[in-house]
Amino acid sequence: MSGTTAAAARPRSVGDGGHRWVVLVVLCVSLLLVAVDATVLHVAVPEVTEDLRPSGVELLWIVDAYPLVCAALLILFGTLGDRIGRRRVLLLGYAIFGVASAFAAFATTPEVLIAARALLGVGGAMIMPATLSVLRAVFPDRRERAMAIGIWTAVAAVGAATGPLLGGFLVENFWWGSVFLINIPLMVVLLPVARWLLPESRSGADGPWDVLGALMAAAGVLCLVFGVKRLGVGHGILDARTALPLLAGAALLAGFVHRQRSRRHPLVDVRMFAVAAFSTSVGCIVLAMLALVGLQLIAVQYLQLILGLSPVETGLRLLPLTFAAMAAGATGSYTLRRVGPRRMVCGGFLLTAAAVLLLTLMGQHDRPLLLTTGFVLLGFGLQTTLFASYESMLSEAPAKQAGGAAAIGETSYQLGAGMGIALLGSVMNAAYAPAFGSLAGVPPAASSAASHSLGEAYQVSDRLGGAAGELLRSTARTSFVHGLHVTLVVSAGLLLLGALAALRLPRGMECGVRLAAPVPAERVRGAVLPASREPADAPDPTRKVASHP
User: Fold this and answer.
1) Average pLDDT, the chain
2) How confident is residue 4, by pLDDT bands cut at 50, 70 and 90?
3) Given CB 3.0 to 4.6 Å as the disulfide criterion, which of 65, 96, 402, 487 pairs with 117?
4) What whole-number distance in Å separates Cα of residue 190 and Cα of residue 26?
5) Which of 292, 323, 33 is nearest to 331 (CA)?
6) What is the rounded CA–CA span in Å between residue 126 and residue 340?
């Protein structure tokens, strides 16, 4: 048993003074890049289409290759970091992310850009869970860790929200490849800084790394996310290319769970899910992301197609949501200590549900004060929920499983986002389409095409012109607003379910300094889930104490 923490393996201990907060800055910058890259390409799609001339399928893969690959590999690289060193995986992720960014920026064919985006996903999957698991090692005290996670989650929200704004600015002033090129100088700086500053940590687990189990998890998540994304773009669940990936993903993940339960040295201790606080936290992350991403997608369409705002103006309208999320992250640690995980997650869901119901007052005319109020409440409520859920999930997991727990949290985040687009998008389509059943004077083919989306309805109405075109346009606008209201009500119902689920979380928060796993031994279905009394993470034996001046 080691007698020092991972942090102590560095010449300047991360536990002393403000050094650990400098480490947090490095981790947050790393996360910011990954979060920005998930959305920065969206506004550049027209320019990419004009330059590279991809087919419809190729364009879909250009957009989706990054999140699909990233989601699929989170568990693989999260658990690998536990075994070989989280800092080592993080640094390798930086290198891959920088190289992939260069290939993407100067891609001359759709195939090269798809491959580069997939490689970016590999780098992102290395970086995301590593930042959270290193944070877990650097902040052994739960009170300080709560503050650090609040900053971490706020940075994730900022990155996702500012991606379209940054992408719009770069595309308007340079060329589409610049949205990737900005990553390279930052990675050149981050690599040496992170190598010097970050402590190496690993689980110290015995036994071989389960390569087959890691591949099963990766393939299962990939199939599941792919199927969910197909649902989100309107393919039916009975479509073979949708149903087969969903079934295959579910079967592979079930096999992965069975394999982990039977192994002496599992990749992920699935008994963690039998601890109510851990499983509930993961479920709350899924529900919160389901609401956020689905609503954000519909809100962007509303702002651009109903209110007629430009992409940059749309991004500016969404900034209050981002600022509110930052405020929730900054105050999250104080709130968590005062009210505890249960009330914080439950309150966040209730506040978000209230914001969603307030937004049902939106109509075909701009109401800036209403939108701003709704977005502020939405951002604050959802970030409060995400913060407390992540903090509870990471604190309930044994320290030696930090990478696996972080990967589970990030996978839940990605699955929730995909499910949100699929579920709320389907609700929106079901409420929007029926209005086009019988429009006097409008050809059936035109009505059918317009029922697919509001953007397509505008194109068809422009081609028709005259009274028929105007009727089609007004019907589409009215139907879209109606569908938006229905979707918001459904979303509020899901958020209320989340508030009920949060009642399984602990009332209070234990804030003592712990170098051991933060949860005492739990009896799970007759088996003991031990809370190790060893240090949070074993130090890297290959690192010398005085290896840096």
Assistant:
1) 77
2) very low
3) 65
4) 7
5) 323
6) 31
- Output the CA torsion sign for 399, 400, 406, 412: negative
Tell me the pLDDT tens digit for each residue of 466-508: 888 888 888 889 998 998 899 899 889 989 999 998 988 887 6
**Residue whose token pair is 């096999």:** 255
**What torsion do the CA atoms of 271, 81, 326, 494 make, to the nearest 10 degrees?**
-30
Q: Which residues pair with 513 in a beta bridge?
A: 141
Rounded-to-integer distance, Cα 326 and Cα 306, Å: 28
Nearest to 272 by CA among 145, 412, 147, 150: 412
Rounded Cα gap, residues 48 and 45, in angstroms: 5
538, containing H or E segment = strand 538-539
Whether residue 100 contacts residue 10, with contact meaning beta carbons closer than 8 Å, is answered with no
- Reduced to 3 states (helix: H, G, I; strand: E, B; else coil), residue 520 is coil
**CA–CA distance, 499 with 348 (Å, rounded to integer):** 8
* Contact present, 501 and 285 (Cβ < 8 Å): no
Q: Report the candidate in 239, 248, 221 with the shortest Cα–Cα distance to residue 416.
A: 221
Cβ pair 278, 341 in contact under 8 A: no
* Average pLDDT of the residues in 109-128: 90
| Size of the chain in residues | 549
What distance lies between CA 125 and its chain's CA centroid?
11
DSSP state of 522: E
CA quadruple 61, 179, 376, 127: dihedral positive or negative?
A: positive
> For 11-15, 408-412, 526-530, which range has the lowest pLDDT when averaged over its residues?
526-530
* DSSP label of 14: T
Look up residue 249 and give its two tokens: 């993903």
393-452: pLDDT as tens digits = 877 777 666 667 777 777 777 777 767 766 777 788 788 888 887 777 788 888 888 887
Place of tokens 């004077």: 441
Say how far apart CA 12 and CA 21 lie, in whole Å: 13
* CA triple 95-100-101, angle to 5 deg: 100
CA-to-CA separations, 104 to 36, 52, 324, 539, in angstroms, rounded: 15, 12, 33, 37
Q: What is the DSSP string of 108-158?
A: -SHHHHHHHHHHHHHHHHHHHHHHHHHHHHH--BHHHHHHHHHHHHHHHHH
**Surface-to-core class of residue 238, CB atoms within 10 Å of its CB (0-12 exposed, 13-18 middle, 19+ buried):** exposed
pLDDT for 328 beyond 70: yes
So what's the pLDDT on residue 521? Answer: 33
What integer pLDDT is reported at residue 538 of this predicted model? 41
Residue 205, amino acid: A
Phi/psi class of residue 260: alpha, beta or left (left: φ > 0; alpha: ψ in -120 to 50)?
alpha
Residue type, 284: C
- Integer Cα distance of 156 and 131 in angstroms: 11
